[in-house]
Amino acid sequence: MVSWDEILARLPSEVREVIETTRAHNRWRRETINLIASENVMSPLAEAAYLNDMMHRYAEGKPRKRYYQGLRYVDVVEELVMKYMGELLGGAFIEPRPVSGTIANATVFRALASCPSSEGRPKALIAPVQAGAHVSHTKFGTLGALCIEHIELPYDPDNLNVDVDKAVKMIEDVKPVFVVLGGSLYLFPHPVREIAEAAHSVGAKLVYDAAHVLGLIVGKRWRNPLDHGADIMTASTHKTFPGPQGGIIATRQEDLYKAVSRIVFPYFVSNHHLHRLPALAITALEMKYYGEAYADQVVRNAKALAEALAAEGFKVLGEHLGYTRSHQVAVDVREYGGGAKAAQLLEEANIIVNKNLLPYDPPDAIKNPSGLRLGVQEMTRWGMKEDDMREIARFMRRVVIDGEDPAKVRKEVVEFRRNFQKVHYAFDVDPTENGKLLLLY
Ligand SMILES: *Cc1c(COP(=O)(O)O)cnc(C)c1O
């Protein structure tokens, strides 16, 4: 048997550099504690299914109504995705073609709001940025690109959430075309039912952006917004939902479904990255069989991490509210030099987090905000439980509070991470058995 190193040695050095860099990334990420709240890993089976010939193809249109030939199997897989994702959401029409959550938002926003005219710009009310609204909900993102007027709902600092009474009043006064809830720094559920009622009373639609919490919703540890009055939901398929990177739209209203389907193609995608569909169908089935156990452990781990960080001396947001009900934890590290410095030091210790604006930070503090945002979903997939969260909190205290040499902590982090090399809550098969990717050809 020729070794990979011998095979690589025959290639031009430029090729070797690309391959070696990618391998280095793969290996390094297996030695890190990844707490980026918007990331996850697919199971080996879903990863194997991701590598398929569909990546070379085009499938403009809907299953069985395509513009090109050659799609008999793509049609089947796309329909399976729509079926399984719809079932996971308690019955819904699924539009799986947006290639990201941002494109899903663009599609829905464009379907609900017409272009600006002499009558003015359409208005959208969005969750307050302090309560986690994503850049795509704002004038700086998709909403702005579509020339929709961005107006923020009022914020309730005590509850770290939308101020319901003031929001209802604002909806009645402004009469927007739609309202957006859901967020990126997202610890506590937004008040869907109350906002839906107010929106509907003025003829507005409620859009719920579940990018972060889709995996918790299908695992029944977060309220399904479609059960509580949201008209339509957008999401990413790779955050708490541990599938391939992509976006999705779900609604129980057939007219809305048809409207978004007419927008996504041809406005926002031409090919829709077909190779992710088999992996998405497999991940949906993983969530069908293991999603509740997974989501349950995610919320337990988030709570355990928050409590452990507080016990180690960190200032964790939302103590009076129980810290978190999602996969996330927010920590104020201002007194240790701010989020940028803490995140950098932690990376040197192989703990990957992102700096984040906290609700009381001014928007221009973006380069060095007070906070860190942590998410436990990926480490939960790798099999970590509450005790492991306490270990992570100790590592973080040593680096950020005690000022220990991160390189020294890194050695222990790498050692610790070695115990978690298998993806849980997934079908227990090795698709590389016998040295071949079973699914390929
Ligand atoms: C991540 C995120 C998005 C964008 O998702 P992409 O798949 O990265 O385009 C949209 N909305 C919210 C609330 C998010 O957190």
TrEMBL record:
Pathway(s) where this gene product acts: Amino-acid biosynthesis; glycine biosynthesis; glycine from L-serine: step 1/1
The protein's name in its UniProt record: Serine hydroxymethyltransferase
Keywords per UniProt: Amino-acid biosynthesis, Cytoplasm, Methyltransferase, One-carbon metabolism, Pyridoxal phosphate, Transferase
List of residues that carry N6-(pyridoxal phosphate)lysine: K239
GO molecular function terms noted in the UniProt entry: glycine hydroxymethyltransferase activity; methyltransferase activity; pyridoxal phosphate binding
CDD domains: SHMT
Site (Plays an important role in substrate specificity): H238
Enzyme Commission (EC) number: 2.1.2.-
Entry GO terms, CC: cytoplasm
Function: Catalyzes the reversible interconversion of serine and glycine with a modified folate serving as the one-carbon carrier. Also exhibits a pteridine-independent aldolase activity toward beta-hydroxyamino acids, producing glycine and aldehydes, via a retro-aldol mechanism.
GO biological process: glycine biosynthetic process from serine; methylation; tetrahydrofolate interconversion
Complexes and interactors: Homodimer.
Binding-site residues for (6S)-5,6,7,8-tetrahydrofolate, renumbered to this chain: A133, H134, V135, E254
Source species of the chain: Pyrolobus fumarii (strain DSM 11204 / 1A)
Signal peptide from the UniProt entry: none
Protein family (similarity comment): Belongs to the SHMT family.
SUPFAM superfamilies: PLP-dependent transferases
Necessary cofactors: pyridoxal 5'-phosphate
Subcellular location field: Cytoplasm
Serine hydroxymethyltransferase-like domain location: 16-396
InterPro entries per the UniProt record, alphabetical: PyrdxlP-dep_Trfase, PyrdxlP-dep_Trfase_major, PyrdxlP-dep_Trfase_small, Ser_HO-MeTrfase, Ser_HO-MeTrfase-like, Ser_HO-MeTrfase_PLP_BS, SHMT-like_dom
